[in-house]
Amino acid sequence: MKVTVIGSGVMGHGIAELAAIAGNEVWINDVSKEILEQALSRVRWSLSKLKESGGVKEDVEKIMSRITAEVNQDEALRGSDFVIEAVKEDLELKRGIFKKAEVLAPNAVLATNTSSLPIEEIASPLNSKERAIGMHFFNPPVIMPLVEVVRSKDTSDQTVNRTVEMARSMGKETIVVRDVPGFFVNRVLLRIMEAGCFLVESGRATVEEVDSSAMEELGFPMGVFLLADYTGLDIGYSVWKAVTSRGFEAFPCKSTEKLVLAGNLGVKSGSGYYKYPSPGKFSRPALPQSTKKLGRYLLSPAVNEVTSLIEGGVVSKEDAERGCILGLGLPKGILSYADEIGIDQVVNTLEEIAKETGMSHFRPSHVLTDMVREGKLGVKTGEGFYKYKREERSFSTIIVRVDPPIGWIVLNRPTRYNAINEAMMREINSALDELETDDRVRVIVFTGQGKFFSAGADVTEFQGLTPIKAMIASRKFHEVFLKVQFLTKPVIAAINGMALGGGLELALSADLRVASRGVEIGQPEINLGLIPGGGGTQRLPRLAGKRGLEIVLTGRRVKSEEAKEIGIVDEVVDPEKMEEEVRKLALAIAEKSPIAVALAKLAYNMGMESSIWTGAAYEASLFGLMFSTKDFREGLKAFMERRRPEFRGE
């Protein structure tokens, strides 16, 4: 098949390379031999790198032999079976290429790599409009896994099918979308960008705080403004102007416009939202370690946009999610994010922004408001855009809930302040065994029913204990808490209320502790003439040093804020956001390789209990072991392909 690529820039020569790898006869065209020679040199370099990494099996020169560089555009187009135009975003230039191709390649698909110009406008002079289609590659095309196939109202099904087949022959995933300004992926990206601009220009956050939240809270591969710098502010601005001039309402990002007009275009010019060592040289800026929780602001406008596009038939729900993951490199689709945030939170956030800006496009879609009215709020209610399987079983002292990928153990003696008795210890022990072997569960969370996490050991069981029986009872606590500490799955303690004595010791045995703002924790055993008996004298020193000893000796209670300051808890959150924040943390861990998580936890805990020499040797052994796993191979492959890995624990 003869494939013609018009334009040999970054996108053009990458597309030509993909077409040649797929076995096609490729003709690449540009305005001069010098430009084409540079393009062929870049293709040869890229192919050599792919050959080294095993990305291509054929000889580099054999693939290169299938590429013909041609300055004469008529010759490049004549008799072509598939034309891909990849020139600059100039409507008249693109129209001219299509008009010429329509005559010289009468049987060809006429594809444009435009990222912003409507396909219908580009194809308007054509007699055979049914052959015109958008074939939107992402930069760099050789690495990015997605092609966005854009059909206008005139594009035929045959043209769509041929384009999808061509993309797949190049090793790409595809989504098919209707022709609207910005198509799908860029509309979502623009909504995220406008949300970032709103946060900065309304004084809610700095550029650095927005980017830190995007990466640390949401898991984005790059911050909102950092990505804009990386791709070029002029490119983003031109897309913004192209779609807003065609009816796409958006918050005006004055900071971007100001930077572009001043010639500060991002990495390419050496400065944009951030400063760089020199023009064209990228380096990651230092961002705040602790982030403001801005995720709901950054995502809610995008959620609104996606629901409207799905309802309008622009894109399917499945393609929308895949487009976010494969085109934007997000860890999950926008609708999955919405379910985790809570649809009610999304609606509240949109109403807040709409009220402040007075812009109608921020008003929540009726899809979202209907979901709230019907109680479909996402993960927390078991149904949102997706349904979530939740299994719950009640025992005499605990509730065990499997909500994949999270397993919950809820201490359930609210009338006794969730005090830990012998029966509860047995049931926790059994629940841990069950959840550890459940393949659906990747993270385990402890929390308490009602307003208490746990007030500690049930002192009514202390009556009549002899010293030896008390020692045995203490050992039973140790056995269970050590099981928690060395379980092969990570454990989070969601300290939703007061945690005292044995309750705190249970939390201390977990890997991570999230506490509600204002809750009290402590080791009050000294007030009874006792000492902690569930590991408090051992785990507190490892976390809080002498400050922990002071808490033990005085028996005083500390607020969660002070507990975080001295290292006893890892995060403090508002009570109403406890489940949401714990779930986010658990899901962030659950996305990783279960084997790597288990071994990282084991190495960390062993390091705490041994010398650095022993711990380092143990770490090296486990590091080497990971190279034998399928998860490692999948992680490496996904990294090279710039996509989200799918870890299976193998």
Topology record:
Layout: E1 2-6, H1 10-21, E2 25-29, H2 33-53, H3 60-64, E3 67-70, H4 73-77, E4 82-85, H5 91-104, E5 109-112, H6 119-122, E6 132-137, E7 146-151, H7 157-169, E8 173-178, H8 185-201, H9 207-217, H10 224-231, H11 233-244, H12 254-261, H13 295-311, H14 317-328, H15 334-341, H16 343-357, H17 366-373, E9 391-394, E10 398-403, E11 406-411, H18 422-436, E12 443-448, E13 452-454, H19 467-485, E14 491-495, E15 498-500, H20 502-509, E16 512-516, E17 520-522, H21 536-544, H22 546-554, E18 558-559, H23 560-565, E19 571-573, H24 578-590, H25 594-608, H26 612-626, H27 630-641
Helix pairs in contact: 1-2, 8-13, 13-15, 13-16, 15-16, 16-17, 18-19, 19-20, 21-22, 25-26
For this entry, give a set of tags:
650 residues, alpha/beta, eight-stranded mixed beta sheet, seven-stranded mixed beta sheet, elongated
Describe the structure.
With 650 residues, this protein is an alpha/beta fold. The protein contains 27 helices and 19 strands. Helix 16 (343-357) packs across helix 17 (366-373) and helix 21 (536-544) packs across helix 22 (546-554).
Q: If strands are numbered along the chain, what order do they take across the biggest sheet?
A: 3-2-1-4-5-6-7-8
Range of helix content: 40-55%
Q: Over all CA atoms, what is the radius of gyration?
A: 29 Å
- Low-confidence parts lasting 5 or more residues at pLDDT below 50? none
